[in-house]
Structures are given as C-alpha cells and as structure tokens.
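call fold(seq) -> tokens
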Amino acid sequence: MRGLFLMVLSMSGTASLVILLVLLFRLFLRKAPRVFSYALWAAVLFRLLCPVTVESPVGIIPSGMPVLLEQRLEVADRLSVADRPGAPDTSGASNISRDPDTLAVAEEAPDTGGITNSQKGRAAQSVTSLAGLLAIATSVWLCGAAGLLLYSLISLFQLQRRLLGATPLAGERQVWLADHLSSPFVLGLFRPRIFLPSDLPKEERRYILFHERTHIRRLDPCFRALAWLAAVIHWFNPLVWLAFYLAGKDMEISCDEAVLRNIGRDIRADYSSTLLRLSTGKRLPIGPLAFGDSRLQSRIKHVLHYKKPALWVINLALITVLAAGTALATDRGAKMAGGSGRIGLDGQNGQHEQNGQSQSLRPSTPASSNAGGPPSEKGLPETDVNHNGIPETLRLSETGNELSLDFQENGTKIWSAWGSRAPSEWNALFLCTLDGEDYLLRYRPTMYQGNFSYGYELFFLKDGVETTVQQKNISFDTNFSAPFHGTFDPIAISVFVDELNGLLAHSVQLFNTHADLQAAFDQAGTLTETLWWLDDFEGIFTRDPSKSMSENLQDFQAAMTRAQTPAVPVKTDSLPLNHPVEMEFLSGAGAWRTTLTLSPDGSFAGEYTDSDADVQYICRFHGSFGDFARLTDASWSLTLKELVLDTGHPLGEEWRENGIRYISSGPYGLDGPDGAPLEPGSAFLLYTPEATGYAPGTELYGALPFWTWWPGRRQFIDAGDQLGCYGLHNLATGYGFFSPDA
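ret:
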C-alpha cells in the first residue's frame, strides 16, 4: 500500500506543475470562448488518474520526473537496511558477480566522501523517522479517501431519497420536475436525467434545458465523476481542489456561452434574469456526484458581458489549446531531453539498484529455463514485452509483504506488476519466450474450502497496455459428498495443467509470492504445476508417479467419493422454525432486493424489487416447500413444491402506475441458471444460526458461493464461527436468502 501512496504522491506532484501551467494558459485565453479553457483541464485529469506516462517531442515535463520522490524514499529504505546490525558491508572493494548470466555488480563502491560513523548514524535515524512518517501519512491518506467516498455515497443516497416525488415532464425525454429545487442539475452517468425546479416558468425552460443538454451531449457528467475521483485520490493537494473548482466553473460558463450562441437572438437579459431568480432561495444540497452549479452570480456577470468572439480569436485559441494540451499531457522523452533515461540518485543512468548497490543489466535473451529460484538469486533479465524492439529493464522492490516489479523503457516506467505474501493477494509472474518473442505469463491458482479456481493469462504490452494472446480458466471442487458439490472433471483439469506446463517450460520466473506454488516449484526443482494438494490426503489417496495426471485425478476422485460419507437424511413434518422468518436476498449496495417470509410449514410469500432510472422492476410471489429432511443438527434439505407469481402482469410486460413505469419480472433468487423461475422439485437447503463451515463435513464448508451473499460474510476461520442467522440455499444457482437477525 505504501508503494501505491508513493505513486499517488508522484502523480500529484507532476499534476501540480501542470495545474500551474494551465492557470497561466487560462490568462492567455481569457478573451476566447470558455470551452477552450475547459478543454485544458483534461490534461490535468490525465495526469491525476493515469499512472502511465506518454512521451512526445513537445512534452513539457521532463521524462522520469514523476518517479523522483519514489526513488528518494526507496534509497532511504536501503540506507536504513544497511545500517541495521548484521547488514552486509557495502563500503569495501569491488564485488564482481561470477555468474555470467546474472547481473554484473558495479566494480567500485560509491565514495563515502569521508562521512563518519556518527554522521551515518544520524542519517540512519533520520531515515527511520522518515519511514515511520511515511507509514502514518499512508494511513491518513487512506482514511481521507475512504471518508470522501463514504460522503459521496451518503450524499447520493440522500439526494435520491429527496427526489422520490419527482415527476416526468410531459413531452420531454429524461426530464423531471421536483419540488424544493432552486437550481437545475443533471444526475447519472450512463442514462443521465435532468431535474428542474417544478416552479420554473415554461418560457425559461428552453434556456435551461439547452444548457443541461449541452452538458449531456459533451459527456460532462462523466468528466465531473472522473474529476471527483481525482479529488478523492489527491485530497491532500490544495491545487487539485482549486483545479476541481475552476474546471467546474469553466464547464458551466462554456455551456452558458453555448446557449447564448445557439438560441439565435440576443437573450442575455432574459437568460441572466433566469439565472438571477435561480440563485435566490434555499438550495438543495446535491452532493459531488450530481451535476449542478452553485456559482450562479459569477455566471450572471459573464452572461451580461458576453460578446461573440472574432473568428481569428477562435482559431488562435484552438491552435493554442491543441499545442498546450499535448505538451501538458506528455513527457519530454529521454532522448529529446538530451539524456539517457531515468537518472538514479547515485548519478548513474539506466541501472538497476538492489541492496544498496548499483547493478547494470546485461543485454540478454531470456532462455527457455526452468530455474525456479527467486529473482534476487537469478537476477532480472532485459525484456521486450512491448514488442517494439526497445529493451525494457526490470526493477524489483519489496516493502514488508508487498512486492512490485516495474518495467522501464528508456528510464520511464511503462507497466508494473504487484503481489503480496498475504494469501488473498498471492501472485506469480513469468517471462515466457515463444518463437523468439517475449510474453508475460500471469498465474494465480486459488483454493479455499475445497473450491479451486485456476487461470492463466499470456499477454504482451502494446504501448504499455496489456494485450492478451491466450488465456484459460477452470473451476472445480473436491467436496464430493456435499449437496452443493459442483464439478470435478479429471480430463479437463489435466488438459489445463498440460497446457499451462507447456508455457512454463519456456518461462523464467520474475516474481512469485504464492507460497504453495513456490514450495511446489522448489520441491520439483522446475517450473511445473504438479497440483501439490493431491499429496495432502494421506491415508485416503497417494499419487502414483507411474501414472499420468489424468489417471491420478480419476483415482483421486474415486478415493474421495468412497471416503466422504454423505449425511443420511431424516424426514420431518416441519422446518426448524418457531415462527415465520423474514429473509432477504439482496445486493451489497441495496439496489435490488428480494424479501421472503418462510413459515414452519414450508409456505412462503415475498416480493422482488429493483429500479433503474425511471423504471421499476417488480415481482410478487408465493409458494411452498416440502420433502423436509434433517441432514445435520443445523441443516435441512427441502424441495420446491409450488411457486406462483402474483404480480398481475405477464413476465416482461410494462405498465405505468402513478407516473412510474413498471416492468413485470421474475423472482430473483428463486430462479435457475437460465434466469427463469424455478420449477417444482428444485432443491434447497435451510441452515439454522448454529451452522458452521470451518472444517470438512460441517454444514457450510465449501458452500462459498452461498454464504458470501450474506452481507455479514462470515469467513469461518475458527471452529467456533457460526452463521448466526437462518439461511436458505438455492442449490441451482448458489443464491442465498438470510434472516437479518444475526
């Protein structure tokens, strides 16, 4: 996470310089239409959000400048490590590598310039303090960004609640009238809607609608959302907030100018009086994600003094913006800058730094090697994963459990890969050479509670962007006796493994934070996926080295099926409920929801609702379950006996009621994989609050697709962890209904 914060600081510093330059250009453009000033802010937005730099002959920012702060802090880290007791002494003579395939270490150690031990001690203490301050700053940054995101969601939710009474304006598409509004605004990104004050006179609506539709036509809502995202990420930078304010002002005034320019007559007096009336009265807070303006007084002044600019002014402004925008959004390349790329703090160009020493990467073509050792042992090769004939140098850095591998071309970072030693964020990256071309192979196998998800992706970089040439994914589970057991296809699994190993045979490992995968590589002495978990079932299954992978998987399936004894169902007359229980199946954000009240006799009734802009999706239903059987003390099996839709309209039919457009839908959560309502006989499981999922054989072990629907998300990492509520498991899809009384 610290690496991400350093990248944000670096981008923010570069963007600050671009903001100052935009402010200067705005002064030059003060006589031109405001749309040109507005267009310049796109360069700032690009700098704030895009971590990849683009070089051009007219770039203003020197190449490599965005990473200067990151370099200094990484050097500080190395100084701190070197000063610790037991750290290697780097002040001696040369330390030449004897392996010709690895990195060649610089022949002479850097000159200390007569620095005393006391001075080095004070420097180390300063570095330690810097590292601590950086950790605190990273935490503060995350808290600030999270707080602003939470504020955004809360304000948007409050605004939507206040607009529940809005009514559509007859004859106008996506235009709504709402009470208690003193200013119009646009809400939404993909299907934006215009909200107008309900008391706005009809003769004034023409001006306002033209203004708001100009916003929509120019995709201003998307620009506003991206600008707010940039402000959230860089909230600590006051220049970013200034840019956010001025960009919004230029946006609004440019739309005002569009109204004055296109109406066809002089409406300055009428339009300014409309703005003046909208600027009075109590305002409705619309939040950062809605699209309105509160700077009406400055807009009124601009409208009153507006004069249509001369053609030569427009042409000159257009040329200026095109040139300035390109110069501000791009870097001046290393060759253009008269240098040789990224310059390290030790004054040496194009070098890889590791463990406090400068190491030059030797030009080399990655061999078809199976060396599975970590990069720090074997070194990092030069690559050409951009396929442009320009070699990239690799720079590996590690902070705590986090690891980052940067690909640099002419000293500029074009792409980076990230991994963590935390199991949930394991990652492995390999350099794969096929037919003389370099590719990157990403492989991240995951395993949890007998559920496996394997996938690889072979890709190269095109202008620093990933371009996939081959990928494959496969999922299966080994919970053979569970009612929710999915698939286990030995042939398909072995085909996947053979295909992956064919790529690994032509690969070199760049980094690997996947502990189990690395242990398997080390044991095999080669980069080969062996499905190491097949060796974890002592007494049940033993791998036969003389057999193929497919044959071993078939033997494993047979052995596990014999060893896992399914629960014996005991029929009952009712469900383990003392009273009707209300259950919910819903999205995390609450955009859609299905409620279901289940009674002890198995009868149920419920409703599904969802909304999308001006459309309400709805389904009312009732039915019953039967064939009750107790599987364990905390789980029951049951089947669907009847499902009746009570909406009163056929599926898919649309109708209007009280000004709202409704669409009759299916009962989401009681549907199958095809989306159609379930047929009688469909299987379900009911869990009581005592259900656990920590160990194999417990009720929820392996039922990950089900219990992750519960917003509480029990992780079942301890034997005492329980579901804590009633759960209804749709075995056809894995969907889950849960009672809220956890």
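Residues 117-162 form the longest helix (46 residues).
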